[in-house]
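Following up on my earlier message about flavin-adenine dinucleotide. Here are the inputs again, as you asked, copied directly from the submission form:
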Amino acid sequence: MIPPIARRFVAGETVPVALEHVRACNEDGLRVILNRLGEHYDDPDDARADTEAYLDLLDDIAAAGLDACVSVKPSQLGLDVSDDLFAEHYREIVAHAHDLDAFVWCDMEDADTTDATLDAFASIAADYPWRVGQCLQSNLRRTREDLDRLVDVPGAIRLVKGAYDEPPAIAYTDKARVDEAYREDLRLLFERRDRGIAVGSHDPAMIALADRLAREHDADYEVQMLMGVREAAQRDLAAQGVDVAQYTPYGDKWLSYFSRRVRERRENLAFAARAIVGR
Ligand SMILES: Cc1cc2nc3c(=O)[nH]c(=O)nc-3n(C[C@H](O)[C@H](O)[C@H](O)COP(=O)(O)OP(=O)(O)OC[C@H]3O[C@@H](n4cnc5c(N)ncnc54)[C@H](O)[C@@H]3O)c2cc1C
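Thanks, got it. Here's what our run produced:
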């Protein structure tokens, strides 16, 4: 069972509970990006099981007529086993989404996985244009070059600041520098694309910048935020007419996801500590 402390960030353990959450979000004007929790599988059977779960989930979303898509993790689809196994599973999910007129996002994990993840994205997007979107992390020094490389790839880009601790040789580690990189990357995205831009951030300054850039370039974009983080702002933005999607994890493997959310914010650490000591 998911402990109450983690429920702020995780919809529930099962698909029906997750779909109920989607329905409630849709009623509030939010689209939902469902992520089945799971990562770093070294057994190909686990990667296969999650791939099949995503295929079924896409069917369930379509059958229920909900406004939702999915977001997969490379190591959940088998990247720790082999690049090929991951790419094969990823392609199968996107092909199924294509048949259902649905959409698939791919999260970005630690920097050791960036090359294989981007290779798979570029190849699958070429075969299934605008059916797939990839997360890029502004804390990585390489991201500017990756944006150049992906400029003509017909897939969406979700820009985030980056949730993984990386060494200074390859990443900006100072928060102000990461924020600056995020602004620069966002400007580049709007200069080069008029669709497929997702602002994966809760930071009001970045959301305001995206709004300005979208007007300047007459481009479409969406804001993506996590379940449990600035939920009132998500609903306010949607009410103002901004396209908002809530990234919603579900499933029983909640611990590492929850730990990343807690590490991001000192207040969450205090909240977690209070829940553990029961006050
Ligand atoms: C939709 C989405 C998908 C993501 N996918 C990935 C991914 O694939 N790979 C990856 O590395 N990272 C991913 N991230 C996480 C991202 O990299 C950041 O770690 C996270 O979003 C915090 O950065 P921020 O832009 O919100 O800005 P921050 O400057 O960190 O935060 C801005 C404000 O948002 C609020 N806030 C932010 N985080 C929290 C929190 N955990 N709890 C409570 N309040 C908070 C606070 O009010 C804070 O002041 C994703 C984030 C989102 C929103």
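One observation from looking it over: Residues 44-64 form the longest helix (21 residues). Hope that helps, and feel free to reply on this thread.
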